Amino acid sequence: MEDAALQRILDQIADAAFATADKGRVADYIPDLAGVAPDQFAIAVARPGHPTLTAGRASHRFSIQSVSKVFTLALALGTLGDRLWNRVGREPSGQAFDSMILLEQEQGRPRNPFINAGAIVTTDAVLEGSEPREALAAILRFVQAAANDDDIHINESVARSEIATGHRNFALAHYLRSHDNLRHPPDLTLGVYFHQCAIEMTCAQLAHAGLFLTACEGAPRLVSPGRVRRINALMMTCGHYDGSGDYAYRVGLPGKSGVGGGILTIAPGVASIAVWAPGLNRYGNSKLGTEAMQRLTDLTGWSVF
Ligand code: DON
């Protein structure tokens, strides 16, 4: 698609988002995110060989939260390989992102690497053999390399705010440890996990950081093509938790959401797309972001189906 035509579509999508009355509810269980104004929207599309196209507040930094789980998964698969799957499953959970219920029924093996329990195990795997500071630096370096941009940082205040209030994640981590599925003390692993979630990026940076998952010619190659396919499969089936089926139905592309209101979506072989709108739907995924992505795939025909 030509840049000018795509730009018109993005402008139309941003106009529709700003005009929508119901913006969803901003996450308030992380105190530092509770004050973010819900009437904000941004979208960015990155394609190798094209300028990055944007609409809305695409240079505004937001907390990527669970979108970070895609990058830690790629990193963990790179270091641990398929051994990761001994500790984490690859099935959708059909439960909320912070649910505990299946963890007890399934002896401490989380359903997938994108629900909180599975992401905590994945971060624990990245931590293997290194200090928390080094593991965190490796995660941040991976994100910066993917985005080809060093100006990406961690918001210490957001991380601290979650350390102070993240009782569910502590419960999940202790439960995992009781099943010997956490190799480090819960506060060590969670220290890294909360900081990775507190990475801040703009929509334009996030769209860039997703390029390695498009397998486009000219995109950075950070993991093997086989792993790119499999990470996309997990994003499609598990990337929006118990809203994954709904997202696949509406958008038809692999995506990963975060409670900061960001969504990274991959159109394989075509583009990497980031949207941000902080108000969430009942699954904890960006409400306007999901609607924007549905419009984008309707208007461009970008879908794997
Ligand atoms: O662990 C948490 O609860 C947050 N740091 C991340 C959760 C999240 O982003 C869920 N996604 N929609």
TrEMBL record:
GO terms for molecular function: glutaminase activity. Its EC number is 3.5.1.2. It catalyses: L-glutamine + H2O = L-glutamate + NH4(+). The keyword Disulfide bond does not apply. Keywords: Acetylation, Hydrolase. Gene3D superfamilies: DD-peptidase/beta-lactamase superfamily (3.40.710.10). Substrate binds at residues 66, 116, 162, 169, 193, 241, 259. It comes from the Bacteria. The keyword Disulfide bond does not apply. It is an enzyme of class 3 (hydrolase). GO terms for biological process: glutamate biosynthetic process; L-glutamine catabolic process. Homotetramer. Belongs to the glutaminase family. PANTHER family: GLUTAMINASE (PTHR12544:SF29). This is Glutaminase. It comes from Roseovarius spongiae. The gene is glsA.
